[in-house]
Amino acid sequence: MSERYDLLFDWQQDRCLNTRVFFVDTWDRELDRNHLMVVDFPIDTGPIRKGDLVIKRVVGMPGEVMTYNSMSIETDTGFQFTSDIRKGAEHIGYTFPERSVLALNNNEYFLAGDLPYSFDSRYWGAINEQHIYGKAYAVF
After folding, report:
1. Is 111 within 8 Å of 37 (Cβ atoms)?
2. Structure pTM?
3. The three-state (H, E, C) secondary structure of the chain, written as one string
4. What's the distance, CA 29 to chain centroid?
5. Which residues pair with 23 in a beta bridge?
6. CA torsion 119→122→128→131, rounded to 10°?
7. Residue 64 near residue 77 (C-beta atoms within 8 A)
8. What pLDDT, in 10s, does the model give residues 79-111?
């Protein structure tokens, strides 16, 4: 059996959330919109390596349809999330389409960061629930 609690530190120079220290409950997998989720990242993407623990905000729930671009995210249920990541995209030479649409499966979440350098689901798509490490709580 694994330890229930963990303490994680955001090591990134250009963070995606306004916090550096997170308390994580690794047994708590019950997530809702706006909760902070820790993911055991499933693929190599360049900035994030397979196996890295990544902390992001849940903005899309299983079964929803996401419409998004570099400035905002909206669900088919009417939820809207604004987070302009154009600055970060320009920094790595990435250009977003004007509008993208993604239908989440019943076991997938769409994740986002709050700050301009967030590398989130708008780049790499949905995250399957099997990669959930736990629920995070901002400490500092």
Report:
1. yes
2. 0.89
3. CCCCEEEEECCCCCCCCCCCEEEEECCCCCCCCCCEEEEECCCCCCCCCCCCEEEEEEEECCCCEEEECCCEEEECCCCEEECCCHHHHHHCCCCCCCCEEEECCCCEEEEECCCCCCCCHHHHCCEEHHHEEEEEEECC
4. 15
5. 7, 137
6. 0
7. yes
8. 999 988 888 888 888 888 999 999 999 999 999
Q: Given the structure tokens 């419409």, which residue do they identify?
A: 67
CATH number for domain 5-138, candidates 3.40.50.12780, 2.10.109.10, 1.20.210.10, 3.40.47.10: 2.10.109.10
